[in-house]
Amino acid sequence: MPKHKHSLSAAILTALFATSVFAAPSLAEDKTMAKGEKTVMVGGAPMYPSKTIVQNAVNSKDHTTLVAAVKAAGLVDTLSGAGPFTVFAPVNPAFAKLPAGTVETLLKPENKATLTNVLTYHVVPGRLTAANLMKAVKDGGGQAKFKTVAGGEITVKSPSAGKLTVTDAKGDVATVTTGDVMQANGVIHVVDTVLLPG
Q1: Are 182 and 49 in contact, with CB atoms under 8 Å apart?
Q2: Where in the chain are the domains?
Q3: Phi and psi dihedrals of 79, rounded to 5?
Q4: In CATH, what number does 3-191 get?
Q5: pLDDT tens by residue, 17-44
Q6: Neighbouring-strand partners of residue 144
Q7: Cis preceding linkage at 84, omega within 30
């Protein structure tokens, strides 16, 4: 692992474990929640439909950068709220594809507004399942546009049966790698690319 990525990962993990909001549930809680709940595995952890977006995301080892960014932007309370929200959640390698230094720069306190804009560009109001998105694409003649919480639009398409992509304002395309990760306050669709508002 390159030195700068190792130090970034260490900083993120330090930030996460220093905050009680992101504490992992106890083993007893995990066993209780597992009864009767249909979970989806994301980042090596079960995602519980009875938990909020933040409570689930913190347990995914694939979303440590996203969780650190949500904390830095002050969006923990928002994404823990009633919602519902549809979140297109980029994995760590998606953030790693950004130009060198981008993540570190965005996490600085002076760039909180920009970071918030980028993160809320991944959020659409409402609970849009993969079936909802597919229907909207079909009804839209091959694509569907959705207004994000940030105010900009994203375009969802289905390039092949059962597949969904999301195109941002710059024309970059993210593929949904895991869809319909149900949450108490919405739904997460895991994507492989960070969406940028332009």
Answers
A1: yes
A2: 3-191
A3: -80, -5
A4: 2.30.180.10
A5: 333 333 333 333 343 344 567 888 787 7
A6: 156
A7: yes
* Residues listed for the chain: 198
In this structure, the strands spanning 45-47 and 40-42 are antiparallel
Convert the pLDDT of each residue in 118-150 to its tens digit: 989 999 999 999 999 999 999 999 999 999 999
Nearest to 175 by CA among 85, 46, 88, 95: 88
Q: Is 103 exposed, middle or buried (0-12, 13-18, 19+ CB in 10 A)?
A: buried
Q: Please tell me the number of Cα atoms within 13 Å of 115 on its side-chain side.
A: 23
**Residue pointed to by tokens 């949500």:** 70
Q: What is the DSSP string of the chain?
A: --HHHHHHHHHHHHHHHT-GGGPPPPHHHHHHHHTT---EEETTEEEPTTS-HHHHHTT-TT-HHHHHHHHHHT-HHHHHSS--EEEEEE-HHHHHTSPTTHHHHHTSGGGHHHHHHHHHTTEEES---HHHHHHHHHHTTSEEEEE-TTS-EEEEE-SSTT--EEE-TTS-EEEEEEEEEEETTEEEEEESS-----
Q: What is the rounded CA–CA span in Å between residue 148 and residue 119?
A: 10
Rounded to whole angstroms, the Cα distance separating 177 from 4 reads 27
